[in-house]
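Notebook entry, structure prediction.
Reason for the run: the old model in the group folder had no record of what sequence produced it. Starting over properly, with the input documented here first.
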Amino acid sequence: MVIDTNSFEGGTNGTAVTTANSGGASGTAFAAATSGLSFSNVRAHGGTLSCTFTSSAATSYAAWYPGAATNMQARGYFWLDQANAGGEFHLIGIYEANGNSVMIFRLTASNVLRLYKNIAPTSNTWAPTTTMPIGQWVRAELLMEQGTTTSN
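New structure, fully documented this time:
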C-alpha cells in the first residue's frame, strides 16, 4: 500500500502556498493551489507551519489528486477564529475527475459541521446539531472506499 501525505512544511512563513512548495520533505505537493492561501507559523498544529486564508475562503483552496486510488483517507485540522456566519465552507472533499463533489465535509452558515453525499439521492449522511468550537483545533477525517458500481 502506498501512502502519500501532504503538509505545509515546505514553505516559508508569510509566503503564498503553491503547488511547488506545498509538499516539503515529508509529503507530496498539492496538485492545485489558488491564491489566498499562505504559510503561517502563528498556530501550527504539527511541525512549524500551517496554512491560513488571506482572502475569502470561497476563492481559496488547495487540492491533491491521487492516481487510481480505491481507498483514500483525508484528515484535516482546522482552527476557527470566529463562527462561519456567511455561507458554506468546504473543509475536506472528494471530487470526481470532472470536478463534481462526491462527498464533502462542509461547515454550514450556522457553524455546524456536516458530511454531505452529493450522489443521487443527495443527503447529509452525518448531520449533528452541535456547532463547531471556536478558538481551538478541530480534526476532521473522511474515508472513501470505492464501491462496486459508480453509484457507490
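Summary: The radius of gyration is 16 Å.
The old model has been moved to the deprecated folder.
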